[in-house]
Amino acid sequence: MESVLGRYRNLIILVGVLFLQVLGLAMQVKKSGNDEEKTRLIRIWAVDAITPFERTVVWVGNSSGNLWHNYFYLRGVRAENRQLRDQIEHLRLEQVRLAEDAAQARRLQTLLAFKEQFISRTVAAQVIGSSGSDHSRIIYIDKGERAGIRRDMAVMTSDGIVGKVLLVYPSVSQVLLISDESSGVGALLEKTRLQGVLRGTSNGEVVLERVMSDEQVPVGETVLTSGGDQIFPKGLPVGTVMRVGGGKDLFLNIKIKPAADLSKLEEVLVLVEKQERQATAEDSVRMRAADILAQRLPSVPDKPAGNAAALAAPPATSAASALATELKPENKQPPGTVAKPAGSTAPTKPAVKTPRGTGASPAAAGQASGTNPSGANTVRRTSPAPEPSKPPGTDSTAPKKSDNGGVAITETDTSQNKSAGPQKKSAEPATPPRDNSQPPPDESKPQ
Amino acid sequence: MPITYTSGEQVEVYRFSIPVTVGVPLLALFVQAFVPLRFPRFAVYLDLPLLVTIFFAMARRNPISGLLTGAFIGLAEDMLGHNPIGIYGIAKTVVGYGASSLGVKLDVENAGARLLVTVGFYFVHAAVYFTVARGMVNMTQTWSWSHGLLAALANAVLGVMLYFLLDKFKQRT
User: Looking at this predicted complex, what is its ipTM?
Assistant: First the structure.
């Protein structure tokens, strides 16, 4: 007997080790409901062994990168600045149009007693690691239980949703990406309003399931969250339809290109608090979730103080949002004219036609006069100037602005590693709006 | 000096210092978890923990230490993911045992042999993982020969370079 054991010692140990692992695996599979609690401790060991290195490398990489990009490599910054200013002007005009639609939607929602979901607080986090395996599409973020993160919280970027929090450790969290095959997100198509379930595949693609094969789904259509999963609020961008093919069981096989680049995530926002409340027409205009997220990401550089007033236009007090609150049916004007700015006490100038034929606010038009790329139009500013926004990375109260999709942010906590200041609960503007009867000298001059 | 005799030829058995024994697998796990954030294709094709398992198993030429090394590295890799713990553990245990058993019988010091051994064990690893994941955990797994071949070759090429680097840490017993 001893000689047999001695001869097959290696094999016996192999079988023993394999048997133990199979047993452990079988127990986890059997208790799939609450196995996370059982395996949590050993997962913590592994995470604790790896994440400090990852955190250090990320910190060193970011610090050196920031030093280089913010202090040395500033080539093309002026040109980019100019380009961005032009883009802001363009977006402001677009914003006014959208604000009008949003206000109308809000009134309709009020009539129908709709309940809206608002993103009330988010926590910015840095991606510090992954599972390292293509069989498990997860990432690790540098915020955990101590930062108020809990299981099943939504994770997103300014571009779109990323995934949900799967496991929470004291200072680290594990996020399941939407491209993982075990994930599922309620989604709907923006124009056709068809609903489906977003799932990942084993090769890392994202598909929309449960859309009947007799439906017409155009390629390129935007996919939004439907809110049906109780994790993601309704209306967050998910991605666009890349390919539509025949699936099995009378359903279409719709391949989605995620709006957020899941392969190159650096910073994400975790939705730690959301509110549900009745829509009211009196509400001031709220900002779209995606817009706020774009402003709050820590990677976005601070705006120069001199330009802050001109550039940053949180819609809470911007002419666009003020305009939206004023957009009662009797105040509506035909496109191509400028509406009277809200809160304007001084006599305003006559309506001025905008060059693009949109119902732009005077503020937007005023801004356009200074930096319009065409340079052909001269419009006096007649509205309050937008308030300067807080730089990203600080706790701030997000401005209020209406949202067509019913998702809005009322407060954002973007506390990175260092910032954890008191949060403002009020949506009042940080600075009073500028007197609109006194146009800024540089912008009032005709060109 | 402990020497294993195979067909009359002496095969040397190596050992490693404790920092190398602990640090190299940890470093491999760290790189495997971190690099895909910058280079997403890395995790799709390359499996550094597997290469480290094969190297240690072949160098030590002891099936028990080989399978235990594989089990520990595999289990640690499982813990970083969200799937049930043990799938990588089982696959790498088999690889560790196989590589150390092969190391006793073959000269695995030259680059050609190492290339072939790595390609072979990549497929062994993939086959065991595939079987356990589908058979026990009911995970959806798709097998692609083109992807498998490409990944095996990529791992083998990286492995050969990595093995020569890790040879520096070998200590004769």
Answer: 0.84
